Amino acid sequence: MVRSIIQQYARGVTNIVGALCVGHFFGTEIYSTAWVKGSSMLPTLQDKELVFVEKWRPYDHYKSGDVVILRSPTAEGKAWVKRIISLPGETAPLPDTKGKPIQVPTGHVWIEGDNRRVSSDSRAIGPIPMSLIEGRVIRVWWPYQRIRGVSNELFSWQKPYNVPFSQDSEFGRVMSAYWGEEEQQSKQSEDEQQ
């Protein structure tokens, strides 16, 4: 009788420990969640959104346009959410200080935030080691009114670097509304004067 109770208790504890181990492995190696902080990924991701992150993807399966979570290369213990713009061996969309093209080295990627005005990214610190990438953002889970998939399409302005925003594109319309029509028009008139 006592032995039977002890065996049942041991089985229960073993099942709980096993479930916790599987859950821990799943949450650290396969999928996890992360909170978006800041506005560097507007309009794609907004501040205080909870995103679902696919972590099992090997480095050679990332592609241009993927939105990723990575460990900050400049501040230990912090994480960034950015978009991969260029892969190893590709040319970065921004030339170096001498005007020469930057080729992304092996094992590195060129990342940028979708909201360039406030984003700290490869434009300031150069190519980022792929070993810092923790996973690919695949879905927004919270708030529930904004549940959606996350696009891995590059915006038209992210490949040829200094192309003005087109009012015909979805991104151009969103950013014009976000930045304000007057500022967008003043930028265009300055460009026309030059």
Query: Under the CATH scheme, which class?
Result: Mainly Beta
Beta-sheet strand percentage? 15-25%
User: Roughly what percent helix?
Assistant: 25-40%
Radius of gyration, CA atoms, in whole angstroms: 22 Å
For the record, the count of structural domains works out to: 1
CATH architecture classification name: Ribbon
Within the CATH hierarchy, at the fold level, what is the topology? Umud Fragment, subunit A
Q: What would you note in describing this structure?
A:
With 194 residues, the protein is an alpha+beta fold. The chain has one domain: Umud Fragment, subunit A. The protein is 29% helix and 22% strand. The chain contains four helices and eight strands. It has helices at 2-30, 122-125, 170-179, 181-193; strands spanning 31-35, 50-54, 67-71, 79-86, 108-112, 128-129, 133-142, 148-149. Strands 1, 2, 3, 4, 5, 6, 7 and 8 form an eight-stranded antiparallel beta sheet that branches. Strand 3 and strand 4 (79-86) form a beta hairpin. The N and C termini lie far apart (92 Å). The model is unreliable at 160-166 and 178-187 (pLDDT under 50). This is Mitochondrial inner membrane protease subunit. Belongs to the peptidase S26 family. IMP1 subfamily. One of its GO terms (molecular function) is serine-type endopeptidase activity.
